[in-house]
């Protein structure tokens, strides 16, 4: 995960957080590993980023939908809602505010 993204902003609210990140360039090894000559951010990495930032370990992915391709150098906003003590819902939007992914997990 080292140097895969840069945190631009992290806002904390009562039961939610908003994380804005900037992904690294296509030269990063994670982009090279997914599809040769078609660098995209793998779905599991979209989940791993939020877990890494929040320092959480996932027990179970309850639901995941990957709606649009995420490319190197994309700016993403993670909207993280804590449903209860162990359940979270995350919506990821791109710079244009279009939802690109959504997932729920349990810690």
TrEMBL record:
Source species, domain of life: Bacteria
Organism phylogeny: Bacteria, Pseudomonadati, Campylobacterota, Epsilonproteobacteria, Campylobacterales
Coiled-coil boundaries: none
ApeI dehydratase-like domain sequence ranges: 23-101
Gene3D superfamilies registered for this protein in UniProt: Hotdog Thioesterase (3.10.129.10)
Annotated organism of origin: Aliarcobacter trophiarum LMG 25534
Protein name according to UniProt: ApeI dehydratase-like domain-containing protein
One matching Pfam family: ApeI-like
InterPro entries: ApeI-like, HotDog_dom_sf
């Amino acid at each position: 995960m080292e140097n895969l993204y840069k945190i631009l902003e992290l806002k904390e609210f009562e039961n939610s957080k908003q994380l804005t990140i900037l992904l690294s360039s296509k030269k990063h090894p994670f982009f090279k590993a997914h599809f040769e000559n078609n660098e995209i951010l793998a779905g599991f990495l979209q989940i791993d980023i939020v877990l890494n930032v929040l320092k959480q370990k996932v027990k179970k992915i309850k639901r995941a939908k990957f709606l649009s391709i995420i490319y190197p150098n994309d700016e993403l906003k993670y909207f993280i809602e804590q449903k209860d003590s162990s359940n979270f819902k995350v919506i990821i939007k791109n710079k244009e505010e279009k939802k690109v992914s959504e997932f729920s997990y349990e810690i």
